[in-house]
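SEQUENCE WITH STRUCTURE:
===
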Amino acid sequence: MRNHKEKPEAGKDKDSEEMQGKGLNDGSASTSPNNNQKKEDDESDVSSHKSRPLTRSNTDPTTSTVKRMKESFYFKWKKSEDKATSIEEKVNPTFEEYLERQYLFEATQLLIDREKDLFGEITEADAIKAHEEAVKKLAADYEALEKCIEQTVQQSLSLGREEEVSALISAVKAINLEEEQDQLWRQRCQTPPAWRPKKWKEHHDKVLHELVYSRLENPSSPTGDQENQSSIQADVQSMGRQLKEDLQWVVEVVKNCYPPEMDICNFYARQYHQTFSARLKKIADFVLDDKDCSFLLRWVKEFYPGILEKPELASNINTEELGNLLPDELLKPLEEQYLSKQQSDLMIYIDRVLDEAKKEWDQGKEPTRDDGCYASPVAYDVIQFINGFVTSAHITVRDPNKAQKITSNLTDFMQRYKDFHEDIIRQNKPHSKAFIKANLSCVKQFKDFLVEHDLFPEDVRKNCLPVLTEMKQSAHTYLLTPVHKVLKPHYQKLGTSDWLKKNTFKKLLNSTEEELQELQGSSQSSYQELIGQLHQEVTEEYVRRLLKGKIKLKNNKKQKKAYETVKGNAEKLHELFAKTGSKQDWLKEILTKIAEVLKLQDIPAIQMQIVSLGSAYPDLSEEHVSALLKLKTNLSNADMNTITSTVVDILRESYTGGETRKFFSNVKVMSPSFPSCISSCRG
């Protein structure tokens, strides 16, 4: 890569002839000359000028310096308006004396007066006959004054004493006065002097442009840790710091030397913006490595806008008019390279997190416990990385949609995490349950993160959530299958004569309570979901065993006994799971409604109770209704047909669709007499 850094242009100290050349088109501060301002109103008291140095830190002007400067500005402007200078009170100053004391406005006024004497109310012929020595002397004095004003303007960003501030104030007033004189000569019909028009405003703008270029070409600010920076990073940072310090100096100090109509803060801002932009364009033209690309982009999109957004600058500079530092054709490749690198780095970091978890698993280590719960760092660490990378990218590119794209490969990560999860289940090692319980907590964290935070493209969110759902379901199955194996002997007693006579349900409750203790170990929210799943599965198994029809309820007495048993079982089952954290209150309602069907004897009442059950749970099928009615053996086939057909008709007419809880679809029963399904009839 060739050196991107430009050398300063030679010949910056131009003589007066060069200063009279053509001005630049970079934009200039507007001029509003003061009309017919009296000479004595613009003079300052020489005796009041003390050589007090003005300190300037490496970053911002100090509060005391700025305060003193502002007081000095007010004093000088006010004093120049209120009274004549002490130098005029004592003597009639000469041009040389004004120039020596840097009373540039007064010196300019003096030369204009001499110019009027030589080229004023006389004819062109008379002007030619004017004293040649006087004309030559006036031209020489103008040249000396112009050089002095140029030097004063060149010191605008390095004012060290109050005399220098006064000189700049005087120089600005002199420039505006000369602009007035140029305008007056344009309105005359006679031939102007050889030095007209002076175009000092144009020269002023050119000098400041060259001053800004020089300061960014050779910044004086410290560049920080250059040993760990590339040459590009060091140069960009040095220019950026110089720009920041100089603009702060302009709004705090230089602004007070100019009248408001010259809008000097915006003029300087344009010069710095254009110069900085030109330098960065040359850098961006090169093929940059990832670090330089990221550094450059952050300066363009983050650091530079951040400088301009500082209150003291934002209140004085129209930042919207400045535009972007880089055009889109240069900015877009930088953004693409940066985002690609961020995406790659993000995947590297989160893959390392998963690899570390796999390493712990392979070594046979159990996850650590936090407040009695198994904890895995996978979700926390990955979430931190995603949040950090996407937030950083958003700040840098200033576009949330572009920043979200760095998570495009998150679906692949989730699939690898799921494969690891399934491998733990498949191997079924002694520490598998601990890992799965820890994973359940991670799955819950990931799901909440995906749903609650706008850091992902919609397709990533939609693809990741089903993977997490599958992981949760497989974990529940793995952890609950052994529980159902333990409870199976107790399940087999349900819906039998022993269940109705000997209250065998209590043994099921006791065993379930013991297993609930064994299921502990995941986070509280994950544990609640797990026992909620067990609560539903135990209830489903209860209903399935009941609908098998092993018990025959031949009369009202037995049916009432069955009602009391089912209703009591529903209360006890709900009480057990509720105290451990289950939120599935609706399961109690299902058993209660079934119990009501068993108790009722009036056919219309039975019909309405089944309709109530089917309306709440549309996956209730005709097989389920048939199996339930067959428990009531005192019902004739005609009664069962009447009840069933009436229920089907009512539910078909009242079905409105929409999502509902699934329950009966998980309860498999067979009833050859009623092959169709109520829910299918509603389609």
Q: What stands out?
A: The mean pLDDT is 82. The chain has 29 helices and two strands.
